[in-house]
């Protein structure tokens, strides 16, 4: 997974050099939705907000579509834009599956599929990259029944009514950032530009200059659990959660119902919470309804995790999270380390908690 993210970072850098020329190009496509053929002419007069991905994507795609949903609810002129999600895995994503997936996040998001050559043609115009691997080797043409993995670049594209590429956003821009950017373009729907948006709360706060120091127990620093990386900047837990736990050591796990790996790791975290005296295990749900969270907890028999939730996705941006699931470790109220991806073992977490709790 780390290698994949490094590869994606390289792709993003390359794209940055290419994007200036690309934004002058007309974007055309020949795809289909649940009702039949769809081209660039199918949404006359509308801006297009477009991302590529696939329905079994564990983190980037659901995070992007979750933010799509928040943005569509927050825009001052949502009727001026059409959110689109184009699958890059047409072998697995038929139209029915694709649109069931997109509508989970917002009824207005349209899922498009098509022939591989047409999907590739659109990706080439955007400068997007994707591909497939099986057993460590590249697969050119995946077929049904093959156990392959999919990789892709992670960007959001704004296409104008004239079908020229206008702007490109990193998917980590967050719902607030994307809403503000689109409001400037779409206006307020009343014939004038949108009122200037207030700065996001995260922008109003003084940015911390340094990351939390390594936790030391005597002369030896506490070893980070496998998959965790030391925090690159200091983030205060109180700035992430309104009612932040006061415990010296806190594990904060971000999750959502749409995130399959998140649901998989919850029972393991529940057992960890039951056994822990050195660390508070805190889960934070992003955007789901309280009754739905309660239903899942009851179905899974989760008794030791809090059903805490937050309505927005800005917490992802504040923590520097690329997607879900995401787990961070806080010591004395400051983020010390984080892991992007599923938790599948907890012994090392327990050892870290014991060491950090005993440190000065």
Question: What brief labels describe this structure?
Answer:
Glutaredoxin; disordered N terminus; six-stranded mixed β-sheet; alpha+beta; 360 residues; 33% helix; 10 helices; five-stranded mixed β-sheet
Q: Which consecutive residue ranges, at least 5 long each, have pLDDT under 50? A: 1-22, 194-213
| N/C terminus separation | 34 Å
Instruction: Compute the CA-based radius of gyration.
Output: 22 Å
What structural category characterises the helix and strand content? alpha+beta
Number of strands: 18
Question: Which homologous superfamily in CATH is the superfamily of the largest domain?
Answer: Glutaredoxin
Strand content: 15-25%
CATH architecture call of the largest domain: 3-Layer(aba) Sandwich
CATH topology of the largest domain: Glutaredoxin
Number of discrete domains: 2
Describe this structure in words.
This protein has 360 residues and is of the alpha+beta class. The protein folds into 2 domains: 2-198, Glutaredoxin (3-Layer(aba) Sandwich); 216-358, Glutaredoxin. The protein has helices at 2-22, 60-74, 95-105, 116-126, 174-186, 201-204, 260-275, 290-300, 314-319, 347-358, and strands at residues 30-33, 36-39, 47-53, 81-87, 110-112, 130-134, 137-139, 149-152, 155-159, 165-170, 216-217, 220-221, 229-230, 249-255, 280-286, 309-310, 326-331, 334-340. A 6-stranded mixed sheet has the order 13-18-17-14-15-16. β15, α8 (290-300) and β16 (309-310) form a beta-alpha-beta unit. α2 (60-74) packs across α5 (174-186). The protein starts with a helix and ends with a helix. Mean pLDDT is 84; it is low at 1-22 and 194-213.
């Amino acid at each position: 997974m780390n290698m994949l993210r490094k590869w994606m970072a390289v792709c993003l850098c390359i794209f940055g050099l290419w994007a200036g020329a690309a934004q002058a190009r007309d974007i055309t496509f020949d795809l289909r939705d649940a009702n039949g053929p769809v081209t660039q002419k199918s949404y006359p007069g509308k801006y297009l907000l477009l991302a590529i991905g696939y329905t079994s994507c564990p983190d980037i795609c659901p995070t992007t579509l979750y933010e799509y949903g928040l943005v569509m609810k927050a825009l001052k002129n949502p009727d001026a834009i059409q959110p689109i999600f184009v699958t890059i895995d047409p072998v697995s994503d038929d139209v029915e599956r694709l649109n069931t997936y997109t509508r989970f996040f917002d009824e207005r998001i349209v899922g498009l599929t098509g022939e591989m050559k047409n999907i590739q043609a659109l990706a080439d115009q955007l400068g997007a990259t994707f591909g497939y691997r099986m057993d460590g080797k590249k697969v050119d043409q995946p077929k049904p029944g093959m156990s392959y993995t999919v990789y892709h670049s992670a960007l959001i594209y704004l296409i104008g009514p004239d079908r020229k590429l206008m702007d490109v956003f990193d998917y980590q821009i967050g719902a607030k950032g994307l809403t503000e950017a689109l409001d400037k373009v779409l206006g307020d729907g009343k014939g004038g530009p949108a009122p200037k948006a207030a700065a996001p709360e995260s922008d109003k706060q003084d940015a911390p200059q340094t990351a939390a120091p390594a936790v030391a127990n005597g002369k030896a620093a506490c070893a980070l659990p496998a998959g965790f990386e030391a925090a690159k900047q200091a983030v205060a837990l109180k700035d992430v959660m309104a009612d932040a736990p006061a415990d010296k050591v806190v594990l904060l796990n971000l999750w959502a119902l749409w995130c399959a790996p998140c649901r998989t790791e919850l029972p393991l975290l529940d057992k960890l919470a039951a056994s822990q005296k050195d660390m508070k295990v805190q889960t934070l749900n992003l955007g789901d309804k309280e009754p739905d969270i309660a239903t899942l907890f009851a179905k899974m028999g989760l008794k030791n995790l809090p059903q805490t939730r937050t309505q927005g996705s800005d917490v992802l941006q504040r923590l520097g999270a690329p997607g879900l699931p995401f787990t961070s470790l806080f010591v004395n109220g400051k983020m010390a380390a984080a892991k992007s991806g599923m938790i599948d073992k907890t012994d090392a977490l327990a050892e870290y908690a014991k060491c950090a709790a005993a440190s000065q």
